[in-house]
Amino acid sequence: MAAILSVEGVSKRFATSEGPVHAIDNVSFAVRSGEFVSVIGPSGCGKSTLFNIIGGLIDGHEGRVAVNGEEVKGPHRAVGMVFQEESAFPWRTTLENVAFPLEIAGMGKAERLARARDLVKLVGLEGFENRYPSEMSGGMRQRSSLARTLAFSPQVLLMDEPFAALDEQTRLLLGDKILQIQQQLKQTTLLITHNIAEAVQLSDRVLVMTYRPGRIKRVIEIDLPRPRSSAVLGSDAFGHYVATVWKDLREEASLGLSESEAALGHRH
Amino acid sequence: MAATDGASPNFAQRAAPILAGVLTLAALALLWQAVCQLGYINKFVAPAPLDIARSFPSLFIDENLAGRFLQTFGETFLSAGLAVAVGIPLGWFLHHKKLAGLAFESWVGGLAAAPLVLAYPLFLVLFGRNTATIVAMSFLSGLPAMVLKTKEGLDGTKRVLVNVGLSFGLKPATLFRKILLPAAMPSIANGVRLALILALINVVGVEFLINLGGLGELIDGLAQRWELAGMFGAILFVILTSVAFFWTTARVEKWFRPHG
Amino acid sequence: MVERSLSRPRPRRRLIGPVTALRVLAALSLWALWEGAARSGWFYEGALPSSFAVLAAGFNLLAQPDFYANLAVTLFEVAAAVAIGSGCGIAVGLALGAFRFAGRAFEPYVQYLAPAPKIIFLPVFMVLLGVDSSSKIAIGALSCFFPMALSVAAGVRQIDPVLLRVGRSFRLTASQTVAKIYLPALASPIATGLRLGLGVAIIGTLLSELQMSKNGLGFLIMQDYGRFDIAEMYAVLGLVFLLAALANGLIARGFRIKGR
């Protein structure tokens, strides 16, 4: 299977008022067609920077990001982004939100609304087509943002902690939904997260990042059978994988914690 | 003094204070009427409520109240329309060119706070004693609010919404049309309402000051002829119509809110 | 359109240079425009004098003793208007905010009357108080009352009820509660009310002077208008605007020092 997304030796440095910050260092990996890959790391490891670079929203980095062999030099049609913050347009109904990418691509009204309806059904928001974001819960809003991104039929779905603001139970249920969708569409997906259970539940592979400067510390193959659901959470294998990920992550997370505590201490 | 049991106030609880207010007003009016009829107040100082009420037919017929109303509100919409037409592009400019925004936002704020109406003799000299003076002053009174609200709305668009647009590869013009402008609409609608309200206040005031047509001149004219009952009647009419105006514009503005 | 690196904040110092430069450039351009228009002959002879003429008239004015007499009259009137208007405004605002029923019953009427230009009540006050400073102060005070009352009422309602419960648990008397809990919590709304109230008090007082007075800065403006001494009129107006801005700035600074 060919790699749809390839990240080769990507590094990024920022100049801040406190001096240069080396956010990520020499990150390389590839995502194959239909694969679900998670990138997990402690806060401050540069995950969001990586997300923005792959999505083409930041430039000035070293290394190369390519989709289907073509280098990413800016927002790329083949890469669909789902952001962490609430991003549904408040002035559009669910249906209009989901139809947005089709609208700007010039699709006719009847056609795009029909396609939007299919996607709304896919993410489980049937019945809420004419509701406004303010009339829906956070989980529903993120689902409509997901449907909107999928409307573009991106080759690579790129998500940055889209469920961070939701409670655990909603997350697990949405995780089930994501698994269904991914199975149905065979969607190539890269998920940035800090939630270990989520990463293991959804992915074929988990990449653990180090604390700043972010590097790939370890690649863990998740060999749980597909199709999966949140029922897998009860299995022994699941627990084993979570423990494996945590072993690597814990070291990095505590590095991050002690550094931020030291920084607070210095300010007194 | 919050509702102790957390239940929302029922109709009686909500209506009672409003009723109390109205009844108090009515009681005061009755008292005033009685005092006048008993001869304690000179009608050349404070006319009785009934006389004020009785002046209305004359106001409509002899003083052309309806026509003046149309003139005042016509001038209001003209001035506010100009403020909107000039203010929205200016507000966009201050948003788009960050340096200009940083440099001049406080100047616009200063203009908003400046007592422009005091310069009416100046405007008389520059524009003459005609509608142009009224429109020019009212236009300037509403302009800063429109500019600032437009800039505020465009500036305040959540970064993530812009990023969504960028991630879909939108060009700057499309990004503005499909994302920035709708996101800024509530603020812009608020600015339009403010321009309308400030224009109305200014128009009535300047009409009174320079004695030129519309409701403001009516008040001044009646005062000069010492027809106090009619003058209070006209003042009452102005207050009632302006309240209706504020209420109507508020409803229209709400329509532009992002649905919640 | 790709965004540059997200977190590359520029050191603050660099931004002050371009902003000031742009402001200076804009000010100079506006001044050049004025001079150009003044000398162009587009405007009626003398309606738009050169800025030098205005400055000369201004200096001339500052050399005359009766200017200071008029200035003193205006300053006194505005100060008195603000004192009376704010005092009543704070008292009424406290009552409307603290007593929910009274607030719901009567505050709407305060809100309806607030936007009306108070100058239209001048004839009434002239009869009641005579054609001198009292009427002017009355209009100014009436103008100042409304923004203060509304600001304080809203501020009282926003006081954290927990603080009031703490006061009750210490068994404070009514006047102690007002002094030790309400007033400190109301510092910000009072400051806002003061700035708005000062603005409208200046407008009300000066408009009264323009309409009917024999002294004060407004009277000077009208005198210049009558004599067509436009340059001096611009100068006096400029001074009035300057004083208004100064007073506004002083209040802002005063409350910033008092605040945390």
Element layout with pairings:
The complex is a heterotrimer of chains A (about 270), B (about 260) and C (about 260).
Chain A: E1 3-16, E2 19-32, E3 36-40, H1 47-54, E4 62-67, E5 70-71, E6 79-82, H2 94-104, H3 109-122, H4 138-151, E7 156-160, H5 168-185, E8 188-193, H6 196-202, E9 205-209, E10 216-221, H7 236-266
Helix pairs in contact in A: 2-3, 2-4, 3-4, 6-7
Chain B: H1 11-37, H2 49-61, H3 65-96, H4 98-113, H5 120-127, H6 131-155, H7 159-167, H8 172-210, H9 214-224, H10 228-254
Helix pairs in contact in B: 2-10, 3-4, 3-6, 3-8, 3-9, 4-6, 5-6, 6-8, 8-9, 8-10, 9-10
Chain C: H1 13-40, H2 51-62, H3 65-98, H4 100-113, H5 122-129, H6 133-157, H7 161-169, H8 174-185, H9 187-212, H10 217-227, H11 230-258
- CATH class term of the largest domain in chain B: Mainly Alpha
Write down the overall mean pLDDT of chain A: 88
| Straight-line N-to-C gap of chain B | 27 Å
Mean pLDDT of chain B: 88
Shape field of chain B = globular
Largest interface: B-C, 54 and 58 residues
Poorly predicted parts of chain B: none
What do we call the CATH homologous superfamily of the largest domain in chain A?
Answer: P-loop containing nucleotide triphosphate hydrolases
Largest sheet: number of strands, sense, barrel closure of chain B: none
What is the gyration radius of chain B calculated from CA atoms? 24 Å
Q: Report the major sheet of chain A.
A: 6 strands, mixed
Q: What would you note in describing this structure?
A:
The complex is a heterotrimer of chains A (about 270), B (about 260) and C (about 260). Chain A has 7 helices and 10 strands. In chain A, helix 2 (about 95-105) runs parallel beside helix 4. Chain A is an alpha/beta fold. Chain A has helices at about 45-55, 95-105, 110-120, 140-150, 170-185, 195-200, 235-265, and strands spanning about 5-15, 20-30, 35-40, 60-65, 70, 80, 155-160, 190-195, 205-210, 215-220. By secondary structure, chain B is mainly α. With about 260 residues, chain C is mainly α. Chain C has a single domain, classed as Orthogonal Bundle (MetI-like fold). In chain C, about 80% of the residues lie in helices and about 0% in strands. Chain C is globular and about 75 Å long. The two termini of chain C are about 45 Å apart. Chains B and C meet through helix 1, helix 4, helix 5, helix 8 and helix 9 of B and helix 1, helix 4, helix 5, helix 9 and helix 10 of C.
